[in-house]
């Protein structure tokens, strides 16, 4: 549901941007002066305009990303809710930008930061970026599978340490008896 929400919200926001904003090269709309502007940019490439002319490749990669996420979530024995939400955000963003590529031949970007020189982006890009961070946090720190592995390793370390202590103690008691 998270991914569908991101893709839908992204498409609605882009449709409004295409109607309400002037084409690139003109003055955008100040949303929060000095911080956030809306500027209409049509991006033929991927992130930051890289890879122009590879629409089919990017659409294919989006499909592969969504399928890989689904397969991972279905086959992984234990996943954290953070992993699920993160991969849903990434998938929703990938689908949102893929819809643009198929329907318009370009991706509509409209969110511009005024306080730093940064490429114009969209809701799908936010979903992808935040989703990657959330999924990684979930996988690295919160995944039940990783937590179980860490607990097993801790138990093994404890058992190993206990047996080493017992060996040392038995050696010491053996020396005292001589």
TrEMBL record:
GO CC annotation, single: plasma membrane
Q: What is its EC number?
A: 3.4.23.36
Pfam families membership: Peptidase_A8 (PF01252)
Q: A single GO molecular function, which one?
A: aspartic-type endopeptidase activity
The places in or outside the cell where this protein is found are: Cell membrane
Query: Reaction catalysed by this chain?
Result: Release of signal peptides from bacterial membrane prolipoproteins. Hydrolyzes -Xaa-Yaa-Zaa-|-(S,diacylglyceryl)Cys-, in which Xaa is hydrophobic (preferably Leu), and Yaa (Ala or Ser) and Zaa (Gly or Ala) have small, neutral side chains
BP GO annotations: proteolysis
Organism's domain of life?
Answer: Bacteria
Q: Does the keyword Hydrolase apply?
A: yes
Q: Give the keywords, sorted.
A: Aspartyl protease, Cell membrane, Hydrolase, Membrane, Protease, Transmembrane, Transmembrane helix
Instruction: Give the residues annotated as active site.
Output: 109, 125
Q: How does it sit in the membrane?
A: Multi-pass membrane protein
Q: In which pathway does it act?
A: Protein modification; lipoprotein biosynthesis (signal peptide cleavage)
Transmembrane regions: 53-74, 81-99, 119-142
**Could you say which protein family the record assigns here?**
Belongs to the peptidase A8 family.
Q: What does this protein do?
A: This protein specifically catalyzes the removal of signal peptides from prolipoproteins.
* Protein name (Swiss-Prot/TrEMBL): Lipoprotein signal peptidase
Source lineage = Bacteria, Bacillati, Actinomycetota, Coriobacteriia, Coriobacteriales
| Encoding gene, per UniProt annotation | lspA
